[in-house]
Amino acid sequence: MTIEAQQGTTEGHGIEWWALAPDAVVAQAKTEAARGLTAAEAERRLADAGPNALQSAPPPSVWRIALSQVLELMTLMLIAVTIVSLLIGQVTTAIIVAVLVLFNVITGTQQEVKARRSVDALAKLQTPKARVIRDGVLLQIDATGLVPGDIVELESGDLVPADGRILRSANLETQESSLTGESLPIPKGSAENTASTALADRTSMVFQNTSVTRGTARIVVVETGMRTQMGRIASLLTQVGDKKSPLQLELDGLTKVLGIIAWSAVLVIVLIGFARGQSLDELLFLATAVAISAIPTGLPVFVQSLLAWGASKLAKERAIVTSLNDVETLGATSAICSDKTGTLTLNMMTVRTAWLGGNTYRVTGEGYSFEGHVIGTSDEPLDAPTLGLAIGLPNDATVSPEGDVVGDPTEAALVVLAARLGIDADQARKDYPRLAEVPFDSDYKFMATLQRIPYRGEQRLVLIVKGAPDVVLGRCTTMLSETREVVPVASDAATTELERMSATGLRTLAIAARFLDDGDEGRIAADPMSWVEELSLIGIVGIVDPLRTEAKDAVAVAHNAGIDVRMITGDHAVTAGAIGAELGLGTGAVSGADLKQMSDEELSGRLPDLHVFGRVTPDDKLRLVRLLQAKGAIVAMTGDAVNDAAAIKQANIGVAMGSGSEVTKQAAKLVLTDDNFATLVHAVEIGRIVYSKITAYLRFQMTQLLSLIMLFLAASAFSIAEGVALFPAQVLFINFFVALFAVFAIAADANPPGIMNHPPRDPKVGVVNRVSLVEWLVYGAVIFLIALVPLLWGPDAPSPTEPTASMTMAYVVLGLATVLSALLMRRTPESGLRAPIAAVAKILVWPVLLIVASTEIGVLQRMLGTVSLTGWQWLGCIGLTLVLLVVVEGDKWFRRRRLRARR
After folding, report:
1. Given a cut of 70, is residue 62 above it in pLDDT?
2. What dihedral do alpha carbons 451, 452, 456, 458 form, nearest 10°?
3. Alpha helices in 734-870 (DSSP H)
4. Coil, strand, or helix at residue 514?
5. Where would you find the membrane-spanning parts of this chain (predicted)?
6. Cα–Cα distances in Å, from 185 out to 160, 192, 393, 435, 557?
7. Among 360, 372, 440, 370, residue whose Cα is nearest residue 407
């Protein structure tokens, strides 16, 4: 099914309730507005429609997840080695490999168990109680018992228990940011919308799990459970399957290749031994030694260690990953789709500019801090106290000095502006109490309050009005000039200023007043609405959710790193486009309505020129992510609301905000505890660093593995110790204990310089490519040759059953080469001997000591099959190991010269 088809099947549920008149909705729902459903009818409908609850598929059991881990190819190979080791009496080898298997399975299971809770978190949001009218009686019932046709009462502070059509309301506003992404409360009413109205603009509807911030309403329930908008998001989440990270896919492919190489080597060597007439026990022993040499037993553990290091580093930078594999995916990110509110912006409505008395003023200060000033170009002093009262009094919001807000965010912005004009709005409302008021209503779009305030040395009765500029301007006949004189209203100048503010993405609000005679107080109080006319315009303010100071720089860093950044928001496209331009996102702003008119092919073709998406739905976000992925992008999607959850789960890296909904966090792979876009860009940088270290480790690991395979093949071909070049325990000791410190050294290496100055790596060019294969084979061949020397020309003849000096020297050369490889191969083509080197050198001292101890301490000699070496034998081992240094550093020197020549 195409994205468009999926969108079409989920866009509606048959009836466009928002487009019907209240009476028609009641009739269609077969209910009564005054009496509601009967108890019997409600019970029947509950049986038909099911409970008003979100459904989720049962998660797989822990045992089932563990079984899937056991069936991984690498694990199966290690289990086979464990069984064979036990059969031939190699108990030490069997125990070490079994511990590795157990560690891999437990770690993998723990990560999988965390991943399966997105829809469950949605279900936890279900409202527990609802006030419903049945048989003409107002009852409080469990919200799960609501059915279509129920009549529900709502008031300020309620969570909406189901999707409903408003029958009547008073001053109703709802906060729908969790569903639509719209940051401001939405005025609601009973008037029907058009059939084509987008979800975010359906003012005649209320939706499950959104909150009532103001007013009261009576609604008829039209959708419950999985048919609500929240239920649709739950359905979208179930459609989005779990995806493996690019590194997982590459390592899966590498594991298969290594399996083929390992067992092919085992087969060849066993066939050679069989042709030589070796016994079954000898062949099994030889096969075990070769398998342990050829299978990268430490690969899963070591990659997990490096990813865990990256996860720890991310956590210190306030970015929490839910799975270790996601650390690496971050580094491959090539496209970021970012939510606006709270991520790119502060999520604090702020007045940035004010048009007062015909002059434009700039407002300084950040967010809800009271610190800031109103600065203009005019020499005429601003009547700050009077303006502060006019701005601060007709508001219900409160803002503490610490920036905590109670009430409408837009009103909070005006309270802060009043504070910057020297007026404490809370105290002013106490000093000048309201004598009458006209509450805000979406029908007339303004609020008015009547107070007696000081003006030019006397107490004056004044009606202060704030509201939508077009409505307020239409009721103004005069305006206050710069010198506080009453002059005819300059409508053209006001309209020009409104257009300027709107073009820069500002929300606008007009303030006006009417000075009245004291003798009119009683008549005004009786009918304040009729006095909201013949107003004097005080001014217009421009409000914005300001950008985070670091957001613009972070976008520039992302662009420099070849990452395409897009902003996806519930705001209108014009507002979003202005903010996108300020951020430097690039050209192209489009609305959700326009998106729906485009086919997948058309939208995909236009994506390079589209960087801002406004008024989008959850389906739109999911569709955009899928289309970007279809074009080969590794997509990071940020968000904090329930409406972001499906797209976040679909994205390669879903990013939730720490302050966001629990649903979004559960669907995400990365949680930003500081809600900051700049943190995400820094997380991408850490992901790139981790990937560079993983490739360094794989270069190190594959070199060791190939050298061991070559060594055992040569031993079989030349009948050295009947093909047993090294004992299995010796191989395991090097591959696990010695190599463990190599991982620590690679992780501790300084970060590669300029890692954010080049494009993202192409996921199609995996860790196994022509350049890496040549590198692995050449370096592996060198290690093989220097380890072969003591086996061919050592002080004694190697034996498959008894410890010998020759085999011990080969073991020591391999061990020292492992340590030196970690130092030299931690970066390429840069020299491994360049500073900073101290931190790495301190770590690599320990495996050298382990190698010495394993040849000198009796208990380790017996476990590993080693003997003590003489001083000259140690010097010989060191000399052979230094050959590796000459070859590797020489190769990198030539490569650096070629790179400089190309430039």
Report:
1. yes
2. 180
3. 739-748, 770-793, 805-824, 838-856, 858-864
4. strand
5. 73-106, 257-277, 283-309, 705-727, 733-752, 773-793, 805-825, 837-860, 872-894
6. 14, 19, 20, 27, 34
7. 440
- Return the DSSP state at 159: B
565-591 in b/e form (b: 16+ CB < 10 A) is bbbbbbbbbebbbbbbbbbebbebbbb
- Cα 631 from Cα 191, distance rounded (Å): 43
Instruction: Provide the residue type at 246 as one letter.
Output: P
Instruction: Give the separation between CA 899 and CA 903, rounded to whole angstroms.
Output: 7
For 549, the token pair is 């100071």
Whether 619 is a known active-site residue: answer no
Is the four-CA dihedral 287, 288, 293, 296 of positive or negative sign?
A: positive
Q: Is 125 exposed, middle or buried (0-12, 13-18, 19+ CB in 10 A)?
A: middle
Q: Convert the pLDDT of each residue in 244-265 to its tens digit.
A: 666 666 766 677 777 777 777 7
Task: Inform me whether the pLDDT recorded for 241 exceeds 60.
Answer: no
What's the pTM?
A: 0.68
Structure tokens at 462: 């004044």
Residue type for 36, please? G
Cβ neighbours for 131, distance < 8 A, ≥ 6 positions apart: 138, 139, 140, 152, 153, 154
The one catalytic residue among 201, 339, 619, 640: 339
Query: What's the average model confidence in pLDDT over 167-194?
Result: 81
- Please answer whether residues 87 and 127 qualify as being in contact, where contact means their C-beta atoms are separated by less than 8 angstroms: no
Cα dist from 9 to 4, 6, 119, 236, 619, whole Å = 9, 5, 20, 11, 11
Instruction: Show Cβ contacts of residue 665 under 8 Å, excluding neighbours closer than 6 positions.
Output: 121, 656, 658, 671
Q: Which amino acid is at 109?
A: T
CA distances from 557 to 553, 562, 635, 683, 690 (A): 6, 9, 17, 12, 18
580 half-sphere exposure, CB direction, 13 A CA radius: 28
DSSP for 662-697 reads HHHHHH-SEEETT--HHHHHHHHHHHHHHHHHHHHH
- Give the separation between CA 510 and CA 467, rounded to whole angstroms: 6
